[in-house]
Amino acid sequence: MPPARSWRTYPQNYRLEAARCTKCGKVFFPPRLICNKCHGRQFEHFNMRGTGKVVTHTVIRTPADEFSGLAPFAVGIIELDDGARVTTQIADAAFDEIKIGMPVKLEFRRHYSEGEAGMIHYGHKAVPLRIAD
What we know:
Blueprint: H1 3-8, H2 11-14, E1 17-21, E2 27-28, E3 43-47, E4 51-60, E5 73-80, E6 85-90, E7 103-113, E8 120-128
Antiparallel strand pairs: 1-2, 1-3, 4-5, 4-7, 5-6, 7-8
């Protein structure tokens, strides 16, 4: 199976599939096998809505090699409305527009490619949630 097709088989990558511990209610993204809060092993899987708010953010000016063509770019910790937190790039906003508490939504977008003919990597980026959204 080609790498791109294989990558799409992981539900958390494309559909934002998370797991909620049925014993204590803690949400995990990506899903895990054992709850680190209560050690429960029973989970309810669900697709998160992908909306939330910025908890903290920073600007990356000297990134890892695969992201060097994108610098500078903003990265933040997003607290999703469904209970999980994710670290992701923040797109479609000037650095001075990004504020703690700002509502955002996750969109599936291109991250980078490995050279001109290499594999393209996709993932979620946070974008400002506008009133019209």
